[in-house]
TrEMBL record:
The gene is tag_1. Its EC number is 3.2.2.20. One of its GO terms (molecular function) is metal ion binding. GO terms for biological process: base-excision repair. Zn(2+) binds at residue 190. InterPro entries: Adenine_glyco, DNA-3mA_glycosylase, DNA_glycosylase. Keywords: Glycosidase, Hydrolase, Metal-binding, Zinc. SUPFAM superfamilies: DNA-glycosylase. Pfam families: Adenine_glyco. This is DNA-3-methyladenine glycosylase 1. It is an enzyme of class 3 (hydrolase).
């Protein structure tokens, strides 16, 4: 069980397994598994980044746990986030998605995902979505000891947001892009005392 003092200060919480995690990953089993195995690990393929981009957009205004619990339903509804398939969605597909209670039924976000699929395809002529997003990897990464020390935006996420918008993407605000960069290993915002710090292989544990 997490120690109260740790949870209140936003520092790492040591679980019953002896591993240190941030408070948000220390309670719910689904979040803990996601944190231990996936969050912060590099995603460098087009389909994988398109999925993450879409899910981060759907998460806007909601908790990540809400999205995580629905991820398999999202994958089924959006044909495993294959950009070519999603870009070809018709009005019938939009109505199908709006009627699907297993996902987030937000018309603007659904339309943005379809439009972002088309924008992803267009980016192939310039090297592709993965290379484009990773080109915004900053020269340094945060080194937080508490949750309060983790920024929610950065110069890199602001620049990525602006660049994606110019390419026709939607629901790619600076905060959303910062979350994307954290989740896909482009930056490392694991707390310094977390057992996952430096696990991506992109950044050292500390400078």
């Amino acid at each position: 069980m997490a120690e109260t003092a740790e949870a209140e200060t936003g520092s790492v919480v040591t679980g019953e397994d002896g591993l240190a995690r941030p408070p948000w990953a220390a309670v719910d089993p689904l979040l803990q598994r996601y944190y231990d195995t996936e969050w912060g690990m590099p995603v460098r393929d087009e389909r994988g980044l398109f999925e993450r981009l879409a899910l981060e957009g759907f998460q806007s205004g909601l908790s990540w746990l809400t999205i995580l619990r629905r991820r398999e339903a999202f994958r089924a509804a959006f044909c495993n986030f294959e950009p070519d398939t999603v870009a070809a969605f018709t009005q019938n597909d939009i109505e199908r998605l709006l009627a699907d209670s297993a996902i987030i039924r937000n018309r603007a976000k659904i339309l943005a995902t379809i439009g972002n699929a088309a924008a992803t395809i267009a980016l192939r002529a310039e090297g592709g979505l993965a290379d484009f997003i990773w080109s915004f990897k900053p020269p340094t990464t945060p080194e937080p000891r508490t949750i309060a020390e983790i920024p929610t935006t950065s110069d890199a996420s602001i620049a990525l947001s602006k660049a994606l918008r110019k390419k026709g993407f939607a629901f790619v605000g600076p905060t959303t892009m910062h979350a994307l960069m954290e989740a896909t290993g482009i930056i490392d915002t694991h707390l310094l005392d977390s057992h996952r710090r430096g696990s991506s292989g992109v950044w050292p544990r500390s400078s």
